[in-house]
Each structure stands twice: as C-alpha cells, then as structure tokens.
Amino acid sequence: MQLAIASGKGGVGKSTVTASLLYLLKDEYRLIAVDADADAPNLDLLLGVERWEEERELIGAKVARINTESCVRCGICQERCPYDCIKVVDGDYVVSELTCEGCNVCGLVCPVPGTITLEEVRSGVVRKTTTRYGFPLISAQLDVGRPNSGKLVTEEKEWAKKLMGELGLEHMIVDSAAGIGCQVIASLGGADVAILVAEPTPASLSDVQRAYRVVQHFRQPAYLIINKADFNPGFTALREWAESEGIPILGEIPYDRAIPESMSMLKPFVEAFPDSKAADAMREIAERVREEILR
Amino acid sequence: MQIAVSGGKGGTGKSTVAINLAIALREHYDLVLADLDVEAPNDHLLLGVELANEEPVEMFMPRFDYQKCTRCRKCAEVCEEHAIITMRDGTPFLMPNLCSGCGACEIVCPVRGAILPGKKLMGHTYFTETPYGFPLVTGRLLEGEERAMPIVTMAKKRARALEKELLMVDTAAGTSNTVSKALEDSGLIIAVTEPTPLGIHDGELILRLAKLMEVPAMVVVNRSDLGDVARVREIAEKYGAEVIAEIPYSESIIRSYVDGKPIVLTDYPEAGLFKEIASKVVEFLGGGE
Q1: Beta bridge partners of A214
Q2: Do B227 and A260 touch (CB under 8 A)?
Q3: Are the Cβ atoms of B46 and A149 closer than 8 angstroms?
Q4: Is 3.40.109.10 the CATH classification of the domain at B2-56+124-285?
Q5: Domain hosting residue A180, numbered range
C-alpha cells in the first residue's frame, strides 16, 4: 500500500508525524519511506540519517542559453518568454538560469539559428539509505533554482517501488512537500490513501482544504491528523470542516515542547520522549492507522 | 525598490514577519505587499481581510483543428512538459493539467490554423486593500494545476504595475525556480528560519540561493528558544548574512496570528521586535521618510 502525507501549509508537522509513524509501525510492517519534499528535504534529519548508501545525479532540467556572439539583439526572445526570464544585462540578452522553466519558446522564436540552445543541467540528486530503524529511506534534493521538482518525486517513487519488489516490502510512506503544485501532485498520484496534517489555525485550514481538493482529483480516501490541537482553543472550524467532508480524524496531537526538542536530538519524538503527551496521542494514531488503513 | 521575505522551510513564520514588517515599513515607504506563495497564500488571513478584485490567470492552451492537422507530431516533440501525447497515426491529444501554457507547440506547428489558441485557467490574482495603509496583491494557483510559475509571474506583474516606492514579496517555502522568480530583482532578502536542524538545513539553502542571485540577505530567527541559535549564526556568517532578530516562541504572537490581528500594532513586547527588524531594513535600504 502507498500512503501519502500532505498538508498544504508548510511547517504544520508532516515530517514530524511521518517520522514518528514510521517508528511506531516499523516492527510490525516492512516499510519504505520516501521524502518527497525535494525543495527542503528534512525526513532524513528526523530519522538521524548520517550517510547515504547510494546517490544518483538527476540530469533532466533544461535551461536556455543565448550565445551573445551571434545574437542580433532583436529582443524577440524577451518579448515571447512566457515567464519574463530574459533580461538585458550590459546590452546582452541573458536568460536567468534560476527562473527558466526550460520551455524553449525563446529558442523557437529566435531568428538566428543556433543562437539560443536548450541545455540539460543537473536538477538535483536522488539518494537512498537504510535508516538505523532498519527500513530504507529514499530522499531527493533539488538544486536551488531548478524547475520540475515533480520529476524528482516521480524518480524517487520509481526507485522505491523497485526496492519494494526486491526486498519484499509492504508499504510505502510518502512525506510530501508543502503546497499543492507539481511536487505534491506527484506525491499524491498513485497513493492509495492520503493522510492530511493540519493545525487549528485559519491559515492551515485554508491550505489543507486546497490540498484536499487535489486529493479529491485522485479520488483517494483521506484522513486528518490535527497537530498542535490545543494551541488555538475555541477554533472549531477545522474539526467542523473535516466532519462536513466526512474525513475521519485519526487523532489530535497536543502542542508539546518535546517535539522541537526531539528535532534537535535528530530522533522521532515518540522515541525521544515516549512519556510525553504528544507521544501518547501519536501511539493512538498509529493504532488507528493499523486498524483502519493498513489492516 | 523590492525586498523579499523567504526562508526555505515551511511554517517558520515568513508570512508573520512579512505582514508585520509591511505594517511597520508603511511609515517609511509607500508600499505594496505581494503574497507569492501561490500554492498556499495566507497573508490575507493574517491581515484579516478577504481577497478582492479577482482576475483570472489564463494561459495559452492549444486546441487542435484535426481537419488541418497533418499528424507531423512536431507539437508533441517540442513540448518539454510532455503535455501532448500522440496516437499511433500521429493525432495529438493534450493533457491539460501538464500544459504550462508556454505556446511552443503553436510556434513549431507548420500548418497555419492547425493549432488554435485556446485558454486555460491556471489560477487567480487578487488586489486587496488592507486597513493598514498598503494594498496586498495575492497569487493563487488553482487546485489540481501543477505549474506555479505563471501565477507567480502574473501576480508579481500586477504588484509591480502599481509602481509603489517599495514592493515587498512573501515567497513560498523551498528554493525552486518559482521561489527564485519571486526573489528576482530584490535588493534584500530576509530569510526567516527556526533554530532546529530542519530550519537550519533549509535556511542554508535559501542563503545559498540568495548568494547565487547576488542579493544580500539578513536572517530572522523565529522561535529562537527552541533550538541552537549559535548554529544559525555560524551558517549566516558563512554566507555573509547578519542575524537581525531573534523572536522567542510566543503565545501572544500565536494569538495575534490566529485572530488576524498583527502583533506589531499591539502593546505586547514582541511588537518591538518587528519594529527593530523594520528599522534594520530602513537603515539598509536608505531613503524613506
């Protein structure tokens, strides 16, 4: 089974919940973890990963380059770039490599053949390790300023599926990025179940509603975990929304300083502080994941 | 003049810093705030306003005239997003969710009129007056759409068209090219991070991006009592960025955040921290009143 964890808003506890869930399920199931937040991968830190066993460079991002020698300075490329990525610097037309989407429109409209070329560049790395808990982790790191991080996620999942076959693993747990764009769509695509994480604030509610609409595109069953559940007493809109949509709430994790402290220890909080209130709540959530999702 | 609030990791307090800083800077500059976190825009919620003056962001989308199409497959070959698939006989089909609206297919099509300019709604931009003396421009990607870049580009254009003395942008999490698009043309990047290993890791990525873009950066450490600030300082120093503020974990900030009442306007001691950030920024930018 493939389970994806998403939230819309960043920093509400996706990776924290994922790391602890992996820790609580690892003895019973043969798992593989995928960190699909290639922009800001953090799951390895929460699982105390110190080294990668294998690292693959991903060449595939494309950026346009303008040869200033043959450029006739007609400006058509700048006019036609759909994303305003071409600037004039000291009289030369230059493509901003850190914003180029690699669509090649500039190359197609340029009247001087060979002046604008689309070149392949490294988009990042995909890497694999075995965590100290015994299950493998696939993670990716996008190079700064590169497009198409959804492709990196697809690459990660393909590697994970291959390993599942080779090692006879049962469940893939995917920790997605913040937002609702290509990375998140690539994370949710192919998942059997989505677990949404939100905190009781208007911002998190607004963002998780958007993430849920993406989940609905894929017609996946969704569940909700409420993090920092007691941090905004009186805010009932999140629970009401989940009820009105028929999204089961797997559990509520109270705000607990044990969580940021466990991050500094580079451990899942259920391992670092098993007696904390947050750990109690997390164990109940894991129990429901066993019973209702993994069965 | 343009400045940006960014941070790498999600949920570090970018929007909280952005809206409070905008309010504090309003005394010094005629400004507009642009929320370019188009996948998860929240500045309006923190400012307690409802998005207004919606405009669609429509991008080009090919429509095929199958009477004229010669099945040459050139459109499918040129599409870098692989949004056009072809049947065995070369008949092209569009997968609309993958199309980023660049128009390359129309450019290469050898038959006039075989690809017609259709339109595809990818999201919206908004222009909202706030009670704080500056407007907010927001970009919002439509759910299910993959490419944030067109929305970031159009929202930024809309904010720029206001020709304010200062454009302040609030970016998404991460360091991909949509974040660099938001950061582009900034004279200063304020990186908001938290002192956990996660915040430090992602904060370093944004400082690296700032350096590549040759934009000076300053660091704000949020929830500064929940980790290792010394380590943040080391990283900041490595990239030549000054740590300009440390904001401790604060119930009052959370309260103001969830109530949509900016903390900088309250009498809580935390208000002073945001005013200090503002004076550092004014000092750096110069000008203003």
Answers
A1: none
A2: yes
A3: no
A4: no
A5: 2-49+131-294
